[in-house]
Amino acid sequence: MPASNPLSVLPTLEADLARIESLLADSVRSNLDMLAEAAAHLANAGGKRVRPGFAIAAAATGHSSARPADSGVLMGGVAVELVHLGSLYHDDVMDEATTRRGVLAANQRWGNVVAILTGDFLLAQSSIIAADLGTDVARLLGETIAELTDGQIRELQDTDNFDRTAEDYYAAISGKTASLLACACRIGSITGQLDQPTTEALTEFGHSYGMAFQIVDDILDVVATSEQLGKPAGNDILEGNFTLPVLRALRSENGDQLRSLIEAGLTAETRDQALILVRTSPGIADALDAARSWADKASGAISNLPDSPGATALQAAATHLVERARAPLE
Predict the structure, then answer these.
(1) Closest C-alpha among 117, 102, 108, 3 to residue 45
(2) Residue 158 Cα distances to 89, 118, 170, 277, angstroms
(3) Cα–Cα–Cα angle for 1, 4, 63, nearest 5°?
(4) Between the CA of residue 72 and those of 8, 166, 187, 224, what are the distances in Å?
(5) What is the mean pLDDT of residues 108-128?
(6) pTM for the whole thing?
(7) What pLDDT score does 3 carry?
(8) Stretch 177-206: mean pLDDT, rounded?
(9) CA 143 to CA 52: how far, in whole Å?
(10) 264: CB partners within 8 A, 6+ apart
(11) Contact 302, 314 (CB under 8 A)
(12) Where are the domains of the chain?
């Protein structure tokens, strides 16, 4: 669902993100024309650059006044964004996606093989940058890619699983979403040369924010319209990915009716009926409470950091997050 960058209260962010765009364009270049075109496909399609923004804001918590990000911080942000972009190419193959960020998905334009290899190329480019930033950053990115894979496999193995628990869901989103946001904050702290307690606080912020971020995204999938989302509403439930609001709805008063619809095989019409059952269940309120709890935990993680433009921006991002989920409900 389109939204302004929640970190925009950081005065230097716009200029820093413009530098990120230039560095990102350089990092996806290749002497092979097809690879160069495929690798630049999603990078050129835009995006809010939330993850490099978090790296920049995390580093900025070490300064009492606004200043441009150092080159190491920017390259750390690029490395994180390359991991994110690489994972999107792989996700689109698994999901058989048709569009991404308003353009034709790479798997539709070039086929699955090229999309997978392009994703691999972007992960490799991230690793090269990380190596230049030091062993701590290189190891962190490697661990994060492993966590991303773990979370995605957890989600896949629970496809169409009506016995999936909230704990199973949390374990999956911790890997597939929260790990990369935690990584972004930690890389910002490392490249910003901040002390260990601050690094740990920022890492906890990123992880908790990431948990809230994914829950909010999953709420929007069932409460927002296709026009608001820029993709078909209810896509997760159609694919058998039972997210937190759906899991809560399945255990509510009309849960048996919802399960019967899903087990019969959802069509466009019955998907809309299923979405109405989820929207009118306690599942939305329960998921909003969970998102708010994680967002509060994120805010609490950095509450003791000294006042700075970076800390202010991160706190604003946490506050903005739950409001984003509430907007379609009002």
Answers:
(1) 102
(2) 22, 27, 12, 21
(3) 135
(4) 21, 38, 10, 38
(5) 94
(6) 0.93
(7) 47
(8) 98
(9) 18
(10) 270
(11) yes
(12) 13-329
Residue pair 250/260 in contact by the 8 Å Cβ criterion: no
CATH of region 13-329, choose from 3.40.50.300, 3.20.20.70, 1.10.600.10, 3.40.190.150: 1.10.600.10
How does DSSP assign 9-47, residue by residue? TSTTHHHHHHHHHHHHHHHT--SSHHHHHHHHHHHHT--
Half-sphere exposure of 159 (CA within 13 A, CB side): 10
Which run of H or of E encompasses 101? none
Question: Among candidates 81, 28, 91, 27, which has minimal Cα distance to 54?
Answer: 81
Q: Is the pLDDT of residue 95 over 60?
A: yes
Check whether 320 has a pLDDT greater than 80: yes
Nearest to 301 by CA among 191, 169, 208, 172: 208
- pLDDT tens profile 257-271: 999 999 999 887 899
What confidence category does residue 230 fall into, taking pLDDT thresholds of 50, 70 and 90? Answer: low
Residue 1's pLDDT is: 41
